[in-house]
Amino acid sequence: MDVTGQSESSAFIGWLFGTIIVAVPIALLVSLALLRIYRRAVLQSMQRRVTPGTATGVLENRPARSGEPPEHPLEITPHDAPADGVRRAVRRATWPSAAVEVCAGLAYAIVMASSWVVVGGLYQWHKFLFEWHVFLLLSVWSAWPMVITVGLATAVSWRGFAMLVAAYALALAGVAAPILVSTGIPAEQLLKLWLRTNGPSTLLALAFLARPIRAVGLLVLVFMIAAVGGAVVILISFNQHQQIFYWIYRGIFYGAALLTLTGLVGIGIIGWLLLRWFVTGVTAEQVLTNWLNANAIDRLRPLTLARPISGVVVVFVIATVGGTIVMDDLFHSDEQQTLLWLIIRELGVVGNIVLLLLAGAVPVGIIGWLLLRWLGSLYRARRISDQSIMIDAVWLMFSFMQSPLSSGPLEVTGATTIGAFVAYKLAATTGYRLLHTGAKEDTQPFKLLLLRVFSLGSRSERMFAGFTKLWRHMGSVRMIAGPDLATSTVEPHEFLDFLAGRLQRRFISGPDTLEQRLRETEPRRDGDGRFRIADFFCHDDTWQMVLRRLEKDTDVVLMDLRGFSPSNRGCVFEIKELLDVMLLRHIVFVVDRTTDEPFLAQVFADAWATLTNASPNWNDPAPRVRLYRCDGHVGQNIPALVAVVANAGMHYRMRTR
Q1: To 10 degrees, the CA torsion angle through 222, 225, 231, 237?
Q2: Are 590 and 560 a contacting pair, CB within 8 Å?
Q3: What H or E segment, with its residue span, contains residue 310?
Q4: Who wins on pLDDT, 513 or 330?
Q5: Which of 81, 422, 449, 450 is the most exposed, having the fewest neighbouring CB atoms within 10 Å of its CB?
Q6: CATH architecture of 74-90+442-656
Q7: What rounded mean pLDDT belongs to the chain?
C-alpha cells in the first residue's frame, strides 16, 4: 500500500471537504441576497419610463374601434378536452430525454463501480478481486444521482420524484438482499454507509436546486468554491512555508506606500490647477489642453509656476524613497523585533487571517469569475442550456463524493473521478445527438406567449416550472418579464450582465431594441432538444408596444388569470388586446377559485363590445372564450393544461396551412 499516496489523498479530501463546508453556506446566503437585489433592480427598471416619444409611435397606428359590437354575442364556456393523440404526445414528450439521461447515468455508474473494484484490488486487498454481484451493487449504489437528474428533467410534481425514488429503492434492495443474506451484514449498517456516501451530496444538490435559487445558485457556488478553495490553499501553504507571510506583508506595505504617493501627487496636481486658476484666470481645461499639445520641455516648464506645490511634491518623493530604503534595511536586519513584525502583532490574529484569505481568494476568485463568463458565452452560443448546467453540476459533485479518493494515490483516484464524469458527459452528448440525427428540423416550432397576473408570486412559479418543463420539448416560450418570475427565468448571461452592472442593456427602450431582442431569441432547440424561454424586459411605457409586437408572431397564448381582480389593470389591457388580435380558439385562459369571475366576465363583455372591424373574431359565427379551471393540485393539472395549449396551437397550424 502506498502510504505517501494515501496521505496526499487524505490531505486533498480534507481540503475538499473544508472548502465545501465553508463555501456552501456562504453561497446560499450570497445567492439569496443577489437574487433579491436583482429582483429589486428589475422592478425599479420596469417602473422607469423611457424618453417621451421613443416607444409611442407603434401604439398610435391602431385600427379605430367600431361603434357597434359584433353581430354574435360572446359566450364563456369551459375548455374542451384535448384530443387523445395530443395527450399521448404530451406524455411522451420527455421520454427521449429521460432515456438519454438513464443511459448516461448508467455509463457513469459502471465507470465509478469499476474504479472502486480496480482501486480496491490494487491498493487495499493486494490482489484484484471481481465478483459480479458486488459490482452490480456498486453500480446501483453509484447510480443514485440519476434519480435527481431524471427527476429534474421530467418530473412536474413531487409525486413524480417520489415514484423515481421508490423505483431506485426497490432496485437497490433487490441487488443488496442476496449480499446481505450471504455475508450477514445488517441492513442498517448498509443503509448508514449509503447515507454517508450519498447523503451530503444529495442535501447539497437539493439545497442549490431549490426553486428560490435554482437559476443562479450553482453559478454562485462555483465562484465560492474557487474563492474559498484558494483561501484554504494559501492557509495550508502558509502553514508549511511561513516565509510567504513575510512577503505578503511586505507587498502590502509597499502597495500602501505607492497608493499614498499616488494620492498625494494627484492632490498636488489638483491644488496646482486651482492655484493657477485663481492667480492667472486660466482654467484647468485650458492648462491640460495646452500641456498635452506641447512638447516634453514645454510640458515641464509650467510646473515652475507653482513653486509651493512643486516643492511639497519633491519633498514628499524624497521622503518616500528614503523611507522605503530605511524600511528595506529593517526588513533585512537580524533583529527579531523589526518594524514589520510590530505591524503584524498590532494587526492581530484576525487581521492576519483576513489578509491571508484575501491573498488566496482574490486571484482564484478571478479565475472563477472568468469561468463563469466562459459558461455564459457557451450558453449564449447555445452549446449548453440552463438544464445541462444544473445536471452537469450534480454529476460532477457526486463524482467527487462517490469516488475512492482515500483508497489510493491521488493521481489514480483523481483520474477515476474525472473519468466517471467524462463517461456521463460523452454518453449524454452522444445520446442527444443520436436522438436528433435524422430528425426533421422544426421549420416552424410552436411559439407560446405567456401572460399572467404578476401578484401570484410563488403560485406563478410552481405552475410556470411544471408547465415549461413539458412545453419546452414542443415549442418556445415568450413572455414579458415581471417581478413574479424575474428570479426564475434569469439566464446565465443575463445574471452575469447584472453582476457587471449592465442590466439596463437587457431592457427594451423602443422598436429597434425590440427587433434586436426578437432576433436574439429566435426559437431553436438546444443540444438537449428543448426550446428556450425568452423574457422581454420592459419599462413602464414600452410593455404595451412589446405585447402588440409579440401578438403578431405567436401561435398560441396562455394567460394565467388566477388571482385576477379589478386591481390588475395591465391584465385588463392584455385581455382586450388578445380578443382584438388573436383568434379565440388560440387563447387559453386559466382560472381558479381566487379569480374574480364576475369582474372577468364584465371585462370580456367590454372587450367584445369595443372590438374593431379588423379583428379576426369580428365575423365569428359562434364566438366562445374557453376557460381552463385549475382548482386542484398544480402538479396534477400540468399535463392536461399542456395538452390543452398544444391542441390550441395545432388549430393554429391547421389554419395557417
Answers
A1: -110
A2: yes
A3: helix 307-331
A4: 513
A5: 81
A6: 3-Layer(aba) Sandwich (3.40)
A7: 75
Report strand pairing: 75-78 vs 556-560: unpaired
What pLDDT is attached to residue 24?
A: 80
| Stretch (H or E) spanning 416 | helix 410-436
Q: Where are the domains of the chain?
A: 74-90+442-656, 254-341
Residue closest to 632 by CA, chosen among 463, 454, 453? 463
Measured in degrees and rounded to the nearest 5, phi and psi for residue 538 equal -125, 150
All three cell numbers of 517, joined, read 431582442
Q: How far, CA to CA in Å, does 392 sit from each of 388, 402, 631?
A: 6, 15, 36
Identify whether the C-beta of residue 580 lies closer than 8 Å to the C-beta of residue 474: no
Residue listed under C-alpha cell 395557417: 656
| Residues forming a β-bridge with 320 | none
For strand 533-538 and strand 624-629, is the pairing parallel, antiparallel, or unpaired?
A: unpaired
Grid cell for residue 271: 491644488
Helix (H, G, I), strand (E, B) or coil at 91: helix
User: Which one-letter amino acid corresponds to residue 137?
Assistant: L
Give the predicted TM-score (pTM) of the model: 0.74
Name the grid cell of 601.
Answer: 366576465
d(CA 365, CA 227): 4
pLDDT of residue 9: 54
Q: Which of 30, 6, 46 is nearest to 454 (CA)?
A: 46
C-alpha torsion sign, points 329, 332, 337, 338: positive
Residue 337 is placed in which grid cell? 523585533
**Are 589 and 559 within 8 A, CB to CB?**
yes
- Report residue 491: phi and psi, to 5°: -90, 155
The CA-based angle 340-346-347, given to 5 degrees, is: 90
Residue at grid coordinates 459502471: 110
- The model's pLDDT over 147-203, given as tens digits with 9 standing for 90+, comes to 999 988 888 778 888 899 999 999 999 998 888 888 888 888 888 889 888 888 888
Within 10 Å of residue 72's Cβ, how many Cβ atoms? 14
